[in-house]
Design brief:
Blueprint lengths: L3 E3 L2 E3 L11 H5 L2 E9 L2 E2 L2 H14 L8 H14 L5 E8 L16 E8 L4 H6 L1 E7 L14 H12 L4 E6 L2 E5 L3 E6 L2 E4 L10 H12 L4 E3 L2 E2 H5 L3 E6 L3 E8 L2 E2 L7 H14 L6
The structure holds 4'-deoxy-4'-aminopyridoxal-5'-phosphate.
4'-deoxy-4'-aminopyridoxal-5'-phosphate binds next to helix 6 and strand 14.
Amino acid sequence: MDLILHNGEFIREEDLVISREDRGYQFGDGIYEVIRVYDGNLFTAKEHIDRFYDSADKIKIVIPYTKDVFHKMIYDFVEVNNIETGQVYVQITRGAAERQHQFPTQATPVIIGNTKSVERPIASLNSGVTAKFIEDIRWLRCDIKSLNLLGNVLAKQEAYEEGFFEAILHRGETVTEGCSSNMYGIKNGTLYTHPANNLILNGITRRVILELCEELEIPVEERPFTKTEALEMDEFIMSSTTTEVMPVVAIGDHKIGQGVPGELTRKLQTAFEARIQVGVKS
Ligand code: PMP
C-alpha cells in the first residue's frame, strides 16, 4: 500500500488521525496543489510549489518548511511510493481548533498528501472532449487554490450528469475558466485566454502553454472573451495538470470548427509532449 504524507512523515493510511475540528473540514480553510509525475519525474514542481506557498500566503497560513525542504519532501514521497506516471496531491489546512470563524490563536497547520498512479488521458487527448457553459457562481478570489471548491463541484456535477467532460464557466457573457481547468480559444491563428487575475486560477499548464505559444510563434492575447466569441473560435482548448492540452471539440451541441482537434491544438500538444519527455529530475 502506498504511504501517505502527514506533517513531513510518510505513514500508513490507517495510522492517520485528523481532528474533527480541523478547519479544513469545517471551513475549507486551506489550500492544495496537484503535481504531475512523468517517468518518475515531477513536472514543473518548482512552479507548483511556488503557487502552493503563494496560495498559503494569501490566506495567511505559514508553511513550516522552506521551499527547498518541502520540494525534497515531495520528491522523496514520489520515490518512496514508486510512482512512475501519476500525481501527487498535497494540502495544508489552518489546523484544528474549537469552531469559530476567526483564526484560532493557537493552531498548528496540518499537511496531508497522497500519491496516485494515473496514466495520461491519451484517448481524450486524441479525440477531444465536449464541454458546456455554466454560470460561474464562485467567489472573487479564484486565484487562490482553495479547498473551498463547492462552486466548481456543483458545476462539474451538472456538466457530468449531462455527459460533458467539463464546464466552461462564465460570469455574465465573459468566459473565465473551467471547473478544474483553464480555457482558450484560437481564432485566425491567435490564442485567446482570460488574463491571470482574481477571476481564474493561473494554471501551471496555462503558463507552459503560453511559453509554448511564444516558442511556436503563435500570437497570444490574454483578454476575456465572450460566450458568443467562444462558439465562433476555430479551435478550443482546456488545460490542467491532469488533462494537459485537451482539445474541446464541441460546446453544448455546437461543434467548434470541424468538430475535431485543430492544427494549432495539435502543434501545442506535440510541443507539450516534448516538454514532459525532457526527463529532468526536478
Ligand atoms: N483552474 C482551476 C479552477 C483548477 O482547479 C485548475 C486545476 N487545478 C486549473 C485551472 C488548471 O491549473 P493547473 O494547470 O495548474 O493544473
